[in-house]
Amino acid sequence: MDHSVNKTALGAIEDDSWLGEKLGEFGEIHFQLGLDWYKLQADFAMAGREQCFVYSHRDKAGEYAILPVIVDHQSSTIRSLATYYTSCYLPLISEAGGGDSLVLILQYLFRVERFSTLQLQPLPEGASSTCALQTALKAAPEAVWSAYHHSVNWRLSPAPASWLEYQKSLPGQLRNTIKRNTKKFIARTGALFDIYLDDKAIAEKMADFQDVYHHSWKQPEPWPEFIPNMVAHYALTGRIRLGVAYLAGEAIAAQIWVVNGGTAHIYKLAQKEGYGRLSVGTLLTAKLFKHVMEVDGVQAIDFMSGDDAYKSAWMNQQRALLGLIVHNKGTVRGWLRSVKLRTRKWIKARLNR
């Protein structure tokens, strides 16, 4: 096996046609695993001091692994190239398995570049790439590591082709709320639901989303430029579904969904305060469910990260999103951190007896 590991700056990916092609392929599977997503985060959701790199290894047999990361030399730490806006991060590996390639990347990080700590999140529990990473860590003698709970992901899979079929499976209270409040809402003057698909229409109506968000219970975005630029970028390739509910010409609820790789990702939801009795956010969600099922024909619907109570009413699957903290005991700083980690684990085990 070729033991060479490549380190490519995020801004130089275009110079490596193979790497750019692979990142493009993974972006078609899940939009948060593609080059466009990594660049959007670097441009609009980071302070500008972060150094973003992609480590990769491939052999002659076609096995490969790709690890996009943020490098912090000051703390001797490598973190997943993920931000507040990320709900899925994975090492990118070949279908045949990239375990050996992952081991070589880890060895390169620990033995050649001598980083003390590696922290990766959010990793979907049970995903083949997550399992391959955990196996690779077990094969790395320098690694002292621990998994921790990061968040939760709710999904509907498989997604029914018919909204009416799916509606029958909803809890009675939710089903009745949709039926009863839809009648109440559409009876009001100027009540309207719109779903925007065209990039020009989306660009115009994002002002409605921003207005709803600003007057909702939501906290201000930590990176205000990220969502508008993310939406504008993916709208160009027809992947955005912007749903807006209006009453008498005023936008009162809005949602951003991303349809990609056969999955509809429910990305951002907002409802103006004062309209809770109408359940207009729930009604808009129902309209978008119907659209992605019957028009887009998606195979799955993903509620991204967060264990909000309402999500379980819509979804049929739950999985944990993990974090992995890895210390390199081959460096002084990493060894000290590993001692602290082992001590914490020992204390926790004693307390749980």
What does it look like?
By secondary structure, this protein is an alpha+beta fold. The protein is built from 11 helices and 13 strands. The relative contact order is 0.15.
Rg calculated over all Cα atoms: 22 Å
Total beta strands: 13
CATH architecture of the largest domain: 3-Layer(aba) Sandwich
The proportion of residues forming helix, as a percent range, comes to 25-40%
- Derived from helix and strand composition plus strand pairing, the structural class reads alpha+beta
End-to-end separation: 46 Å
CATH domain class name of the largest domain? Alpha Beta
Strand content: 25-35%
CATH topology grouping of the largest domain: Aminopeptidase
Q: Which stretches of 5+ consecutive residues score pLDDT under 50?
A: none
SSE sequence, one letter per element: EHHEEEEHEHEHHEHHEEEHEHEH
- Which sheet architecture does the biggest sheet show? 13 strands, mixed
Overall geometry: elongated
Q: Helix tally?
A: 11
Mean pLDDT: 95
Q: State the oligomer.
A: single chain
Estimate nothing, just give the exact number of structural domains. 2
